[in-house]
Specification:
5 helices; elongated; 130 residues; mainly alpha
Length: 130
């Protein structure tokens, strides 16, 4: 369910959504802030062009918003109900969590966005010659 061939695998690893053979990013480290958005133009295996259309990843902004809200809610629930923090401390916890997870949110939102439109193709080699 989470191995190669699944959407979740491609979303978490940032690999090519069509063949799952290589990373979409020039630097696989999501914490390298200088190269957070640096992507390969296309997959060297299946030749999938990642920038499907101009400003394609603009839509990832909406996914990023949802991920940020999710992290904020989870952080609030954990800090307020598990650690019995007051509202001010819970708010500070949310801000810290969002700052620390900012680069991960940016990468994950791009991974999720492209995987909405591109599906895994186990027979990508056959379609390559066409």
């Amino acid at each position: 369910m989470f191995g190669k061939g699944s959407k979740i695998y491609a979303m978490i690893t940032g690999c090519c959504p069509k063949c799952h053979k290589e990373s979409m990013y020039l630097d696989a480290n999501p914490f390298n802030i200088m190269k957070i958005y640096a992507m390969n133009e296309k997959c060297s295996h299946c030749k999938l062009v990642y920038q499907i259309e101009p400003s394609f990843f603009f839509g990832a902004m909406f996914v990023s918003y949802g991920l940020g809200v999710l992290i904020g809610i989870i952080t609030f629930l954990v800090s307020h109900f598990v650690f019995q923090a007051n509202l001010k401390t819970a708010f500070i916890s949310i801000v810290v969590a969002l700052i620390l997870s900012n680069t991960l949110i940016m990468r994950m939102s791009r991974n999720i966005w492209i995987n909405i439109f591109i599906h895994f193709d186990k027979n990508w080699k056959e379609h390559l010659s066409k």
